């Protein structure tokens, strides 16, 4: 009498995929023990923390900021204008995200001492770039509005 | 059954597909971003390996910040001296491209974030392992980008020395990256050729009204990359171009004025160099050679030797560089000849006056010593070196990473290392 084959709780999946993943883990492990050699907890915290911070904090944060912006534009009856705020705001925040140590001045002393350069200009330049981004976006919006007004007049 | 906010049937739960409402998400957008990253990150990894080799870590323990590298140094080779802009180009590409790819990386992670909340957590063992691998992929990518971006701004808050963290982190990341690329690239290419319909778990079942097209979103990401590129790349050039690097650490004006006003990695003040140690009376260069033969040379002694010129850049691991500067000084191979290595210049260990700093001692390989453009420079651009550029004497070697061009040289030991 044949016994019924028991289905495992978790199927194996593609054997090729398994092999690839296991070899990847082996290499990651080889480098990983060296990565964790010193302050293993700190490094692991940075490694895993970076992923968690991004996926569960940064992304929801800018996602909901964008939603709030969209709702604001909708409430003002200007839904189509959202991109004219979103793009310069995102670009400005992107620059801040990348260059915050210099813009915020947290490395100002070390930077000035090491490079012989002034650490003062970064915040001012970031603010000026931000002004140009928003100002430029406003100019484009005005031009587009005039264009579409002219077009609708011609159609009328 | 009660619908709690986290239950997958509630539209307020990220575990519910209906939670993700952006009409932009879908296989096409993810595939475009993925293919860009496939190319970009491959270049980042390769230029990173090349930069690692440029330090000649196998030559001497003083060059090697990762002595446990084991098989990860399998490809190491003697770093060449030609073309003389090799390291400048490599590192400029590595750092500038890395910064340029940040918006693409962020957009890619945004485009796939619903998958983080897929239920059931694992459909199979392979799927479970793939999701663990994705933690290494995402964590590794962010770890590499964050340590790199912080290091070029001298913000050393990461837990350890930059070299081992960025190097071993790169290999952990790359292990996950390769398997991800192998598993996903065929599908991404199919998506781009539109051989498949847009039916995917990435597509929202309940999309919100769009505010921008997918193409528009791509322009948005590309615009962010262009902005970062445009405000960074200039730190690899002099004059007006450097001033376009508005937020990059070595953009803007040159330090000081006059012929020696070009970018400095570490000033004399930062390195703790005192005038009392570098003046004409106090400073002597000690050169040690074959069988312990030793020469003690003042700056005047060096000036009496045949002087040669070379036009060479300073190129830093941090991804900034200068154009060629006109250096003048004594050839390294002439110094080797002075202490008994007449025809066969060997390796050399160079020690600086500076008291701290990861590279206050650095080793150069025989091929670098033998190059006729490799100098112990005494002048730059027609004048005495300034303290910040290494007075009384500094090394300058074609194609070598900046920190191997030791400043404030005090001692040189020739011989096989």
How many strand units of chain B? 10
pLDDT below 50 for ≥5 consecutive residues: which ranges of chain A?
A: none
- Strand order across the largest sheet of chain B: 2-1-10-5-6
Provide the number of structural domains of chain B.
Answer: 2
Instruction: Work out the radius of gyration of chain A.
Output: 26 Å
Mean pLDDT of chain A: 93
Tell me the series of helices and strands of chain B, N- to C-terminal.
HHHHHHHHEEHEEHEEHEEEE
Tally of individual helices of chain A: 5
Mean of residue pLDDT values of chain B: 94
Quaternary class:
heterodimer
Organism (chain B): Streptomyces curacoi
Transmembrane segments (chain B): 28-55, 92-113, 134-153, 165-183
Keywords (chain B): Membrane, Transmembrane, Transmembrane helix
Pfam family, one (chain B): Oxidored_molyb
How would you describe what is shown here?
- The complex is a heterodimer of chains A (156) and B (417).
- Chain A is mostly helical and 156 residues long.
- Chain A is built from five helices and no strands.
- Chain A has two domains: 37-77; 79-156, no CATH class.
- Chain A has helices at residues 15-35, 40-75, 82-103, 108-115, 121-155.
- In chain A, helix 3 packs antiparallel against helix 5 (121-155).
- With 417 residues, chain B is an alpha+beta fold.
- Chain B folds into two domains: 17-230, no CATH class; 268-414, Oxidoreductase, molybdopterin-binding domain (Sulfite Oxidase, Chain A, domain 2).
- In chain B, 38% of the residues lie in helices and 11% in strands.
- Chain B is built from eleven helices and ten strands.
- Chain B has helices spanning 27-54, 86-112, 125-152, 162-192, 214-230, 240-243, 268-271, 275-278, 299-303, 332-338, 366-370; strands at 285-288, 294-297, 308-312, 325-331, 348-352, 361-364, 375-380, 383-384, 394-396, 409-414.
- In chain B, the strands form two sheets. A five-stranded mixed sheet of chain B has the order 2-1-10-5-6.
- In chain B, helix 1 (27-54) runs antiparallel to helix 4 (162-192).
- The termini of chain B are far apart.
- The chains are: A mainly alpha (156), B alpha+beta (417).
- Chains A and B meet through helix 1, helix 2, helix 3, helix 4 and helix 5 of A and helix 2, helix 3, helix 4 and helix 5 of B.
């Amino acid at each position: 009498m044949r016994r019924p084959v028991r289905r495992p709780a978790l199927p194996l999946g593609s054997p090729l995929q398994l092999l690839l993943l296991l070899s990847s883990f082996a290499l990651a492990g080889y480098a990983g023990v060296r990565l964790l050699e010193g302050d293993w907890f700190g490094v692991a915290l940075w490694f895993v923390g970076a992923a968690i911070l991004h996926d569960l904090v940064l992304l929801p944060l800018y996602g909901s900021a964008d939603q709030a912006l969209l709702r604001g534009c909708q409430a003002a009856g200007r839904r189509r204008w959202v991109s004219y705020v979103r793009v310069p705001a995102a670009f400005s925040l992107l620059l801040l995200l990348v260059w915050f140590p210099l813009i915020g001045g947290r490395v100002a002393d070390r930077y000035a001492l090491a490079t012989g350069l002034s650490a003062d200009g970064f915040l001012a330049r970031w603010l000026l770039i931000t002004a140009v981004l928003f100002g430029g976006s406003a100019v484009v919006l005005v031009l587009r509005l005039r264009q579409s007004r002219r077009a609708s007049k011609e159609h009328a | 059954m009660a619908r709690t906010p986290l239950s997958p049937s509630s539209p307020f739960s990220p575990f519910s597909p209906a939670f993700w409402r952006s009409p932009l998400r879908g296989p096409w957008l993810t595939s475009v971003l993925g293919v860009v990253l496939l190319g970009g990150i491959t270049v980042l990894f390769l230029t990173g390996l090349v930069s690692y080799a440029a330090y000649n870590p196998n030559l001497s323990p003083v060059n090697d910040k990762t002595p446990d590298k084991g098989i990860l140094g399998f490809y190491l080779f003697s770093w060449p001296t030609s073309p003389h802009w090799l390291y400048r180009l490599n590192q400029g590409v590595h750092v500038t491209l890395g910064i340029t790819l940040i918006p693409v990386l962020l957009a890619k992670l945004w485009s796939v974030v619903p998958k983080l909340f897929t239920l059931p957590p694992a459909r199979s063992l392979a799927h479970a392992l793939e999701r663990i691998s994705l933690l290494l992929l995402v964590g590794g990518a962010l770890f590499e980008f964050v340590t790199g971006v912080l290091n070029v701004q001298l913000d050393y808050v990461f837990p350890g020395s930059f070299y081992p963290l960025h190097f071993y982190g790169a290999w952990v990341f790359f292990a996950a990256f390769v398997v991800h690329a192998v598993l996903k690239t065929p599908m991404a290419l199919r998506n781009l050729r539109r051989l498949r319909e847009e039916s995917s778990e990435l597509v929202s079942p309940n999309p919100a009204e769009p505010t921008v097209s997918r193409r528009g979103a791509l322009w948005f990401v590309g615009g962010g990359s262009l902005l970062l590129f445009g405000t960074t790349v200039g730190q690899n050039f002099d004059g007006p171009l450097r001033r376009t690097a508005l937020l990059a650490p070595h953009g803007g004006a040159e330090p000081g004025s006059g012929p020696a006003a070009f970018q400095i990695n570490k000033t004399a003040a930062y390195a703790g160099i005192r005038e009392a140690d570098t003046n004409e009376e106090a400073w002597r260069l000690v050169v040690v050679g074959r069988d312990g033969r030793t020469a003690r040379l003042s700056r005047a002694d060096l000036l009496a030797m045949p002087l040669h010129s070379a036009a060479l850049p300073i190129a830093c691991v941090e991804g900034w560089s200068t154009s060629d500067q006109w250096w003048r000084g004594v050839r390294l191979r002439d110094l080797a000849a002075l202490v008994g290595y007449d025809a066969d210049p060997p390796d050399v260990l160079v020690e600086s006056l500076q008291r701290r700093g990861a590279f206050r001692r650095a080793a150069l390989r025989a091929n670098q010593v033998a190059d006729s453009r490799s100098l112990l420079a005494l002048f730059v651009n027609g004048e005495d070196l300034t303290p910040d550029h290494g007075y009384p004497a500094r090394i300058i070697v074609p194609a070598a990473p900046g920190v191997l061009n030791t400043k404030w040289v005090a001692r040189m030991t020739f011989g096989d290392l």
